[in-house]
Amino acid sequence: MDLHLKDQVVIITGGASGIGRTTAEYFRREGARLVLADAHAPALKKAVEELRAAGAEVMAEHVDVRDYAVCERMVSGAILAFDRVDVLVNCAGIGGIPALFSENKPEDWSDLVAINLLGTMHCCRAVVERMIAQRSGRIINIASEAGKANEKRIVAYGATKGGVISLTRGLAVELGRYGITVNAVCPGVTRTPMTSYITDEMEREWARMYPLGRLGRVEDIAPLITFLASSEASWITGQAISVSGGFGRS
Question: In terms of pLDDT, which residue wins out, 247 or 224?
Answer without folding.
Answer: 224
